[in-house]
Records
---
Amino acid sequence: MKDVMLQTAKILLLGLFVILVWGIFHGSRRRVDFAVLRSEVQEVFGTSGMKEGDAQLLRRLYGVNGGELANWYLLTAEDNMAVEELLLVECASSEQAGQVRLAAEKRAETQKNNFEGYGPEQVQLLDNCVIQEEDPYVLFVVSERAQEVKTAFLKGL
Amino acid sequence: MVFSSIVFIFTFLPLVILAYYLAPVKLRNFVLLLASLIFYAWGEPVYLFLMLYSILFNYVIGLDIERQQEKGRNGRGSLILGVTVNLLLLGLFKYYGFLAENLGRLFAVELPDVSLGLPVGLSFYTFQSISYLADVYRRKTGGQTSLISFGLYISMFPQLVAGPIVQYADIDAQLKKRFTSWDLFGEGTRYFIGGLAKKVLLANNLGAVFEAVTASAPQSVLTAWVGVAAYTFQIYFDFSGYSDMAVGLGKMFGFEFKENFHYPYCARSVTEFWRRWHISLSSWFREYVYIPLGGNRVSVPRHMLNLLIVWTLTGLWHGASWNFVVWGLYYGVLLIVEKYLLRRVTEKLPLIGNVYTMLLAAVGWVFFFSPTLSSAIGYLQVMFGRTASPLTDNMGMYYLLTSLLLFWLSWLCSTPLPSGICGRQWQKGRVKPVLLLLYLGLFLLSTAYLIHDTYNPFLYFRF
């Protein structure tokens, strides 16, 4: 009796393993082509006066290691007095998406502290910034067109 | 959820302790299992299913191996099946992307892109599952008949996400019966606060220095060395701090986990360093890979090959990237050189041996923290003056001078001095009130840092 139960459980669990692997390759977890999403977001945001950031800048500004993320794209303003910024990230896990969102919140807070008192326009832009987490994607935008960028981001997903 | 978070320290842990001690002894494993599953689901609800599957699968296979042995067979088929499924799961989540990328490059083979995230703790609980199956197969222990006790072994929250890797035979008896006392609870609390302080007060501040220094490519030899020194201490306090917290939490619930770090930066050789660093991982590889391969009771070339296999696997365990493969091979080669050439020298010259070990460990960490192999090589070139970078610059001097106290404290705390003094005084009971105040102070200070900081991930979570 015990043998039969063990053999049945083994077969069921192996069947479950096959389903799990099948699910991994054909599952419905939302993943879009990052390059397409990036170009759609970038088109609305615009790149004039902006420069693309590298992994070191990402780590410096957000404390995030780019190598651990599935994909990411960072644009910062060329002018030191401008606060326009775009960060689009595809994370490797839900937990990581949460961490990136927290890092973006901290970045917005730091920038606000930097400009508080002498840059009212910059502070207003930062107050209206968008931080949107749509697991596994995270968007951070500081721009006059932040809401439009957010719409493009959500549409792209 | 991480141990060094306000929600864990002030909500989750007190509730679990309360539920655990209020529950009848028979139900305590169940309470801990439930708490562990909630702890895991907090960050990664989607991967809870994977953990539950792992628990059920290994539970059944363990019983199957035992049953076959009772019937006079050896149960090898079930062991192979169990280990294969465990490794396939680990491989799918951790190594699939790496494999697909390299097959694509080498043979232009295009595997489907599945972009899987690595479930937290998968590397740790897969190794624990394999340890269980191997221990049952080798009759070091019987199969666990209680699904709750087995589930607790796999998912126990104190060591679930970053170890130490507990071998089943070491904890089997404690799953059935363990003792709790105020003394043990107090000792656990001391371990926990010590680990928390290591992580929050030392590792996080060292991490800030490292981040600042490496925000751009190092511009001088000095800057590169300051960066690598900061990381060398950061990774030690980060990981050993986590392990201390895990050991402390275990004690609070009556479990005794083995020590995972034993002052590795005091080692006088690389061989000794690896007897003191991440001891549970080294023990696992020794027990389940190195010895089955023949260990050192084989010919010299075969022994060298065994070491290289074990260290390549150790490197790969840390991450699916060529950096980690090179890092593992680096240690494999160093251990071979020490074993056959340098052993007597390092034993006779302990101080020089320690300096040489620290230097080699620091060089090794460059492969660890660099995002790519080429950036690691670039960093090493700056460290050893192989570029046009000057010897010193303002940035290097600034970070060296402003971090001197932190480096000195880090060096001191990486030796047995502080804990030796505290431990001796504690046992003698002479200055208990002073030590109590010290631990209370460390706890309050760490909490203040936690409230201020929003982002303090553990380095070893990604493994």
Note: The mean pLDDT of chain B is 86.
---
Amino acid sequence: MGLPPDLRADFPILERVVHGHPLIYLDSAATAQKPRQVIEALCRFYESSNANVHRSIHTLGEEATALYEAARDRVQGFIHARRREEIVFTRNTTEAINLVARSWGAVHLQPGDEILLTELEHHSNLIPWQLLAQSKGLTLRFLPVTDDGYLDLGGLPRLLTKRTKLVALAHQSNVLGTILPVRMIVDAAHGVGARVLVDAAQSVPHMGVDVSALEADFVVFSAHKMLGPMGIGVLWARWEELSRMEPFLGGGEMIREVWLDHATWNDLPWRFEAGTPNVAGAVGLTAAIAYLERVGMGAIREHEQALTALALDALRREPGVILYGPLSAADKGGVIAFNLEGIHPHDVTQALDQEGIAVRGGHHCAMPLMRRLGVPGTARASFYLYNTEAEIEALVAGLAHVRRLFE
Amino acid sequence: MSPLYSPALLRHWRRPQNFGELPDPDGVAEELNPLCGDRIRIEVKLDGEVVEALRFKGDACAIAVASASVLSGLVRGRPADAVPESVILAELGAEIPPVRMQCLRLPIHTLRKAVAQAGAVKHGA
């Protein structure tokens, strides 16, 4: 395996110079850079096929509709879903989770029911459940995280009970990189009659996810973290669940017939896609999937794992570096959270930026996890298919400069 | 050499003036910058409108700490709003990007709140 040698040439932004240095982009967990193929697909759509979808009889309308529905088929293939009707396009992962909370939670949850989450969830897989718990009188429970960043499954029998109706968890932590044992938790959850939602925002872009093999009930992810444009995401929901859910947003497209005082709903999945969709976004997502499939998810995972192993090894030997999360590259995605002793992560991030190196500093939308780690925040470097060994070496050298600057 | 982390800024960060607590403060305030997690606590002793003594603590970035250090030194013997951000900026001699200006301002806001809290306590609020 291995990546195409000229892959970086496909990403125009990698030519950028920042503060006089070539850009070293190590923040793909926040958003991924886009290959020319995706950017051109977006432009081509607006230049030659732009029209509204589904109800247009004219040629452009037909073309746009075909492109939009082709995106749905492409996503179905990429995540190995059984039916295309199980693919709902949303704005992003956050909206997809809110959709499940509102449309599934509203119908299926009663006061006293419980939802099981983890201590390391992104705010987007926490706040919707907090809001739901407040409005419906539910209890939220949390699987704890161990000191070295793994899920502490010791408490699972106590936390996962007949009262648990839903388990919602990340596939890969956006801070620690930890790959959670989702398949095993799905089995345990189904065993007590609970459904499972998997936040796959960090896993679908980097690992290749097969929703049929995972056997979860809901899987959510965003295009912009997988080389696609911002503004479009996916909810995959098992047909049996989707068909028993109330509408989410109401409006055009999701209806069949409308009177002044009531309406009937469109078929699945369009029932959950109200208003004009992000057609261009869907076109961009198709191009992104095509790119990823051409490179190969296996090759991408292998590349990132090698970079992560290299980075972990080098960072462990650097004085003053504190690492968080698993120290074995096999147990995590290409995400490394770290701090420099005595230096605020924002200053580390700022000082690295002055050398053209883009990492992220702060709470990473995971404040409860920061409290669990006992820190106000961390720096975070995250890798993708376009990063190189030389960039890892530059990061390590950059950190040494930062340490000397603040000595 | 860094235009942002100037020698003066780093000096104030390494050995901040007036870092600590007051035994019997007139006013206390703690402010959080939710965007970045900076947290500054300021305790003041007042003589009427004038800041007699100021101590600060917190978990904050170098810019916020350096700003608090500069502010604490310059505001002594003067009213709380006598030290605007432009003066702190000039003292630090640092090129602070717009997004980090909120770090520079955090101690100024916190001091204002501490003085207000002292006023509220005095009037039995």
Note: Residues 101-122 of chain B form the longest helix (22 residues).
